[in-house]
């Protein structure tokens, strides 16, 4: 019998199955782990991109907070987003109100974006920032004490409209398609550019009473009409801040300096024809020596210039003349300063008056006259600043002291600060004309033909001279003779007639002095002249509020606790 072998079944194939299953499990785990790693890598990339956007946005915010300290949007026209046309008040969300840039391209020179764009491009040079964009919006904080995105839609303005030296700054940056936005409340510190106690600060001031009165004082009366000016001070204090809080006249020349034939320490107040110097011409004898050659430092002057540039009221050059008599009208507009932007909220800054003649000589370019008509109507600026040159504020030659306010200027009045830098005294290396600053006076401001200033007047340098020219005082010789030699009889009537036909005013006054004596003649003249002088009033009236409104800005930054990340998961 033959035995048939049966196939033998054993477990030798189980190892392959186990290995296969293990491989499948490991593959699944590997794929899962790979997915996790890939997700984490993507999340890490996203996080890096978000961080780049945050860093760029934060840099935009802090950079804008810094530059606002030198370019504070104190008014609609200084908000940094105006054009050469008359600026309009903008909402902070308006496309034209925003400032933006792309790190791959340079910003146009002179634009608001250029103030920070160069720094941003220099700081973010990594290839990951190629094509990154940024935008910043400035919004007034009056509507909200905390940032609210509604500020971008509720008509909030793009300047410090409530005047509290605080604005919201919203900074946004987009890097590789991802956008981050931050906001912070920026505050700036401001200080008055000039000390408000001075109604007048200069090296020399002259009060010209007119040729007739000057000749009488000098030639016939020996200067005894000096009391005439004492009745009406050249510089009057602010009624709300009596001297010495305001209305002080400060002289820059030294104790031994000679100005128009007089020692500066006595107060160089005189007429063109050397009317005797008397400090009583000043309110309450409020006269001091100023140890500084200029009213403020170069950094402050640079900021005032920058404010004029921002409001399109900066004028590089104005026509001028070496002759006071032939002075042309000052250029108050320039190529980028439309008339509509000039107001009591802006600074008009004329860098140079005159372009003709020989450079570096008296009366040459930068040392010439131009005039500003304040006769009809009056003018109101925050300040009129002349860098190098001479300016005439010209009235309409009427004697009445004007009323009115800065918002409704009256004829013959300039409301604001007038500041003559007298930079022609500086060396060429300092940006001047090299004319020096010796005691010899240089007339840099003329308050002419009955004009007045309500605010303050400053003129830098020992050589600076301010001249006051009221409407000419006149003498009615017939009335003077009648008051001193009444026609009451044959002899007196004959003498009265004889004196009247002697000749000019000077001859008549000399004859009267010989007939009735010096004292009665002086009193008779003062009775006529004092009312005329009083009707003109003070040439300069201090206004502390106006002087303090001329401000410059210093440190600025984000107020702690106001920083807000607007899209932390963006």
Task: Write a concise synopsis of the structure shown.
The protein contains ten helices and 24 strands. With 570 residues, it is of the alpha/beta class.
Strand content: 15-25%
Mean pLDDT: 83
Poorly predicted runs are 82-86, 265-285
Instruction: Report on the biggest sheet.
Output: 10 strands, parallel
Give the N-to-C terminal Cα separation.
Answer: 89 Å
Tally of separate domains: 3
- Overall helicity: 25-40%
Number of strands: 24
Keywords: Membrane, Transmembrane, Transmembrane helix
Organism: Paraconexibacter sp. AEG42_29
Transmembrane segments: 15-37
Protein name: Type 4 fimbrial biogenesis protein PilX N-terminal domain-containing protein
Features:
transmembrane helix, 10 helices, 570 residues, transmembrane, elongated, alpha/beta, membrane, six-stranded antiparallel β-sheet, Type 4 fimbrial biogenesis protein PilX N-terminal domain-containing protein, ten-stranded parallel β-sheet
Structural account:
This protein has helices at 14-67, 114-123, 211-220, 227-230, 298-310, 477-484, 490-500, 505-516, 518-536, 544-549, and strands at residues 99-102, 133-140, 166-175, 178-192, 198-202, 204-207, 235-236, 248-251, 258-259, 262-263, 269-270, 287-289, 314-318, 347-353, 369-373, 379-388, 390-394, 413-420, 442-448, 452-459, 464-468, 540-542, 551-558, 564-565. The chain is α/β, with parallel strands linked by helices and 570 residues long. It has three domains: 48-192 and 554-565, no CATH class; 198-286 and 473-542, no CATH class; 295-435, no CATH class. The strands form four sheets. Strands 5, 7, 8, 12, 13, 14, 16, 18, 20 and 22 form a ten-stranded parallel beta sheet that branches. Strands 1, 2, 3, 4, 23 and 24 form a six-stranded antiparallel beta sheet that branches. A six-stranded parallel beta sheet has the order 11-6-21-19-17-15, with no helix packed on it. A hairpin with a 2-residue loop joins strand 9 (258-259) and strand 10. The longest helix is centred in the first third of the chain and has 54 residues, at 14-67. The chain starts with 13 loop residues before the first helix and ends in a 5-residue tail after the last strand. Mean pLDDT is 83; it is low at 82-86 and 265-285. This is Type 4 fimbrial biogenesis protein PilX N-terminal domain-containing protein. It comes from Paraconexibacter sp. AEG42_29. The chain crosses the membrane at residues 15-37. Keywords: Membrane, Transmembrane, Transmembrane helix.
């Amino acid at each position: 019998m033959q035995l048939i072998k049966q196939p033998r079944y054993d477990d030798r194939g189980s190892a392959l199955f186990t290995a296969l299953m293990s491989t499948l499990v490991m593959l699944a785990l590997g794929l899962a782990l790979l997915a996790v790693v890939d997700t984490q890598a993507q999340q890490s990339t996203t996080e890096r991109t978000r961080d780049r956007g945050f860093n760029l946005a934060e840099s935009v915010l802090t950079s804008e907070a810094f530059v606002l300290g030198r370019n504070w949007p104190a008014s609609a026209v200084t908000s940094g987003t105006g054009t050469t046309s008359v600026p309009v008040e903008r909402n902070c969300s308006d496309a034209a109100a925003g400032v933006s840039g792309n790190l791959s391209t340079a910003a146009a020179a002179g634009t608001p974006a250029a103030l920070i764009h160069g720094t941003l491009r220099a700081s973010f040079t990594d290839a990951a920032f190629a094509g990154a964009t940024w935008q910043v919006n400035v919004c007034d904080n009056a509507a909200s004490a905390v940032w609210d995105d509604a500020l971008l839609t509720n008509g909030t303005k793009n300047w410090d409209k409530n005047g509290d030296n605080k604005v919201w700054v919203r900074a946004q940056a987009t890097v590789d398609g991802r956008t981050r936005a931050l906001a912070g409340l920026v505050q700036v510190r401001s200080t008055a550019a000039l000390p408000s106690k001075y109604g007048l600060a200069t090296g020399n001031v002259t009060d010209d009473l007119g040729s007739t009165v000057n000749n009488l004082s000098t030639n016939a009366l020996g200067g005894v009409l000096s009391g005439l000016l004492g009745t009406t001070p050249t510089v009057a204090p602010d009624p709300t801040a009596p001297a010495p809080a305001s209305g002080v006249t400060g002289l820059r020349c030294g104790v031994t300096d000679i100005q128009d034939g007089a020692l500066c320490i006595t107060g160089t107040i005189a007429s063109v024809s050397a009317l005797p110097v008397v400090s009583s011409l000043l309110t309450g004898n409020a006269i001091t020596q100023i140890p500084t050659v200029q009213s403020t430092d170069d950094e402050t002057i640079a900021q005032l210039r920058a404010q004029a540039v921002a409001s399109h009221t900066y004028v590089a050059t104005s026509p001028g003349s070496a002759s006071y008599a032939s002075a042309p009208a000052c250029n108050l507009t320039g190529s980028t300063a439309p008339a509509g932007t000039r107001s009591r909220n802006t600074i008009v800054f004329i860098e140079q008056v005159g372009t003709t003649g020989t450079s570096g000589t008296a009366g040459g370019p930068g040392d010439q006259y131009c005039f500003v008509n304040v006769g009809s109507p009056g003018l109101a600026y925050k300040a009129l600043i002349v860098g190098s040159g001479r300016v005439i504020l010209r009235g309409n030659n009427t004697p009445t002291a004007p009323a009115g306010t800065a918002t409704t200027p009256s004829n013959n009045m300039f409301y604001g600060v007038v500041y003559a830098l007298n930079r022609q005294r500086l060396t060429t290396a300092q940006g001047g004309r090299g004319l020096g600053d010796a005691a010899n006076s240089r007339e840099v401001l003329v308050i002419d033909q009955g004009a007045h200033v309500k605010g303050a007047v400053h003129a830098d340098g020992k050589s600076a001279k301010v001249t006051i020219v009221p409407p000419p005082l006149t003498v009615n010789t017939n009335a003077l003779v009648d008051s001193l030699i009444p026609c009451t009889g044959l002899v007196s009537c004959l003498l009265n007639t004889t004196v009247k036909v002697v000749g000019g005013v000077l001859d008549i006054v000399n004859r009267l002095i010989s007939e009735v004596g010096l004292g009665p003649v002086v009193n008779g003249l003062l009775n006529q002249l004092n009312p005329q002088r009083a009707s003109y009033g003070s040439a300069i009236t201090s206004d502390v509020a106006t002087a303090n409104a001329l401000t410059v800005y210093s440190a600025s930054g984000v107020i702690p606790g106001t920083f807000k990340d607007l899209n932390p998961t963006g």
